Amino acid sequence: APVDQGNKDEDLNLVKNYLSQFYNYENVGQLYINETVATTEKLKEMQRFFGLEVTGKPDLETLAVMKKARCGVPDTGD
Amino acid sequence: FVLTDGNPKWETTTLTYRIVNYTPDMHPSDVDRAIQKALEVWSNVSPLTFTRLYDGLADIMISFHSGEHGDNSPFDGHDGILAHAFQPGRNIGGDAHFDEDEQWTKQGSRGRNLFLVAAHEFGHSLGLSHSTDPGALMYPTYSYTEPNLFRLPQDDIDGIQTVYGKLDSPVQPTGPTTPKACDPRTTFDAIATFRGEMMFFKGRHFWRRHPQLVDVELFFISLFWPNLPSSIDAGYENFQKDTVVLFKGKQYWVLDGYDVLSGYPRSIYELGFPKNVKKIDAAFSDQQTGKTYLFSGFKYWRYDEITQSMEQGYPRKILKDFQGVGRDLDAVLQQDGYIHFFKGTQVFKYDPNSKRVVSVQQSNSWLNC
Prior knowledge:
B: 5 helices
C-alpha cells in the first residue's frame, strides 16, 4: 500500500518532540553511537514506563500514548 | 509511586501558596476553590498544611501562562502539555504553571478540569514524580474523574506519606487501588459483551477483551463515558438495539458506543421491578430469544426486549432454576450455549440443557490469566 509520507513525517516529529520533552533526548547523560540508537533506547524507556510492549519502535500504541494530553514534567529524573 | 530524583522535600510541613493570576475561563472564586480543594487532596492524607498568601513570595506560586513564559519550559498551545510544576526548593521550586491555552473548567468532562490537573501538579510541588500506576493521580496523562467523587488513589497516598509521614491519627486514610488482571483475588463488579468484545467492570476501571487479542486492556470508565459512575453493579448487551445497559443502585444507563443515550440515568422501577429491589447484581440477554435475565439477591426476573416489558411469573428463585450457582452474583455471561455465573473469584459454567454446573473456573481466567 502507498505510504502517507505526510503522516509519517508528522509522527517522526511527534516522537522527536515527545522524547526531547519528557526523556531528555537532547540532553542525555549516556553517550549513544548515533541518533537512531539514542531514539530507540529512549523509546524503550518510554514504553517501559507506560507498560507498553517494548519494541523501541514508534508503533501505533506508542504514538497513541504520545498524543494524549499530559503533564509537562518529564517522566524520568533530571 | 516514584519520588523525584534526589528525594527533594520541604523542610517544614506548614507551607504557603499564592494564586498569582487567574484564567479568564473560570470565575476567580471557582479557581480559588479548585486550588484549595487540590491542596486538600494532599493535606488530608499527610501532616502538610497550606496557608494562602495574597502577596509576596509563597512556597507554591500558582499562575497561568501561554507559550514561552520564562522558565525554559514553554507551553505548546491547546492540548499536548496542560501544566507543569517544579520540585520543592527556593525561588521557582514548588511553583505550578498552567497552560492558559487550555480550556479550564470547574466541572464536567469538557475542557480540562483545573482541580484534577492542579492536584497532580501539586504532587510534583511536594516531591513526587510521575507514577507508573495507570490509576494513580501522579500518572502523567490526563483522565477525567467527576471531581466530587474523586478519591486520592492508594499509590499516591503511599507516595506522599513516604516523603512527609502519616497523619497524626489512629485511623489512616485509604484510597482506591488499580486492579491487576492476573491477581488471583480478582473479582468483577459487572460484565457485558459489546459487538464481539467483552467489558469487565471493576471499580473506576474496566478491562476490554477482544476475541482476537491475547492481552486485555485496562481503561478508566470515565475515559469512554465521563458521566457514568464507578462500581457498576450489572450490565448486558441489548442485541436488538445494539446498545449496552448498565446498572448501579436504583438507576440504569444505556450506552450507544461512546455515547450515553440522553434521558439517562432512569429508574430501574420503570422496567417493572418492585420497590424492594435496591440493586441489580448481574444480567445477561439471550441473543436468540431477546429475553434478558436480571439477577438480584436470591431471585431473578426476565425482561422481554421485544415487547419491552417484564414477563409474568417472575421473580423466580435462582436456586430453583439454576442449581449450584448460588445467590448474590457478581456477573453473568452467556457464551457458546453455556451460562457463566461469576461470584467472587469463581465462575460456574452452567449447562442449560442438562441444568447443572459442568465446571468451575477462576474468574481471572476470563482475562487470559
